[in-house]
Every structure is written in C-alpha cells, then in structure tokens.
Amino acid sequence: MRSHWVLLVVTCTAVAAHAEPLDPKDLKALTNDPLTAKADRVDGDEAPGGLVTFTFDDGPNPETTPAVIDACLKYNIPATFFVVTQRLTGKRGEVPRQILQRLVEAGFLIGSHSVSHANLKSGKPELMKREIDASLRTLAPQINRPVGMFRPPFGAFNKNGRAHLKKLGMTEVLWSIDTLDWQAKSADKLRAKVGKMIVKQNGGVVLMHDVKPITAMIIADVFDDLEAENCQRLAEKREPIIPVSIHYFLKVGKTQRGIPDEVKARTEAYRTALPKRCSSRPPPAAPAVKTGK
Length: 293
Prior knowledge:
The chain is an alpha/beta fold. It has helices spanning 27-31, 65-75, 94-105, 125-143, 159-168, 187-201, 213-235, 261-280, and strands at 51-57, 80-83, 109-112, 149-150, 171-172, 177-178, 203-209, 242-243, 251-252, 255-256.
C-alpha cells in the first residue's frame, strides 16, 4: 500500500482561534480575517498557471463530507469549504457541527455560502442581512475565528450584494472550473471531465459540492488522477499542476495578498515529495492490444 500524504500544516487557516468567544453582534469582528478578507473578487485566474485550488460548497453533510475530507487528507489537498449554515442549527445540526470542527482542526479554510442557499441576485438589503449576516453570526462563533470569504449561491450576485460584502470586509470567491458535479449521472464521466478541465486550464479554482454522493465517490480518484498527471509531467520534464490553498488566488489590485509561511512550506513540501510519490506508483496500464480479428 502506498503511503498517504499527511496534511502538514494544521494552521492552514492562518487565523488562530480567539481566546474569547466571538460576539455574534459584532459583524466586523466576525469577518476580520487579515489573510482572506478584503481581497478582490476571485474568479480563478489570479494565480500563475500550474496552481489549482479545490473548493467545496453546500456542506457539511454527514453522509458525504467525511469522505471528501478523507480524500483531501490522503492527497494533501488544502481545500476550502463554503458552508450553508442552516445545516449547523438545531438537533439536526449536531453531526454537521462535529464535521465542521473536524474541518477546522485539520486546517481547511472555511467560508460562508449563505444561510439557506438562496438566490441573492436581487441584492435586497433584507435578503443580504438574512442570508449573509445571519450566516456569519452562526458560522464564525461556531469555528471561533473570523470568516473572511463568501461565495454567493449559484454565483448570483449584483452590485448591491457586492457593496454589502465590501461593507462587511469580505472577499467574494467564484471559480474558473465548474465541474457541474451536482447534475452528473456517471461517476466515470465526471472523474474524467474534472481531470480534463484542470489540465486544459492548467489549474484554477475548482468548484465541487461535498454534499453530492457522486462527488464523494470519485473525489479521491480525481486527486489520484492529478497526481498521475503530475508524475507524467515530471517524467517529461514539465511543470506539475500543484494543489494549493486559495491564499494564492487572493489579490488586491495587482498585488498578491500575503501567503503564510506555513502555507508556502506545505506547497514546497508537495513539490519535494512528488518524485518519491511518483516512484512508488504502479506503472500506468498498457493499452489493450488488438488482435485484428
């Protein structure tokens, strides 16, 4: 059995938990993450080619999210999870809250994906308060650290919504690789599609959904395919596509936001360990030989 990656940096969130509980009434404190808040909108083309970051929406789901976490840990993928906070409330939220805590303890970045996954395109002030502000009042105290990033459901937003985010000091995070996993029927086709999109775009921001059984089923294979692609690239003396934290995609104007030293170290550790990982992989299967009959 090949050895698994170890997620080297438990502090990838780069924001320590507060000594005192966060006050749900203080919205600015709930978003004041010095490394992920107040950046320009992320569309997926902000980082140099050859860097890919994986993002997962709509969880936590007790039936599927744990498998996604396990796959990320196995392949050292520093993913970001955008949480729908109605999943965290009440009796039904007990297990999702435990999963969220596992995400935090493992060092994954956490963003808000609204309270109920409502379409926010109208930008009505009351809707913004009900879906964005209320999500922060649930999420930030739950993880006991600020939440600097927001992803609008469906990517539906307008200038009023963006003005509201700016007032809160939050970063809007979109994507450049939409896998459409939510509507996929074939696991094999989805797996192949995701890999092809990452290679074709030479990295970017990948959008997937940790609540979908088909995604939980194939995500480890997607990560393994990326590793296989990188091994092939090394053999051909080409640059690999490195899985990185979303920190690498955060900019203000043309200036990249600060990347924590421990996050840089994790990225370098992936590069350094890749040749050994490749040497321990089984050789790719030879194509079938046609007999001519």
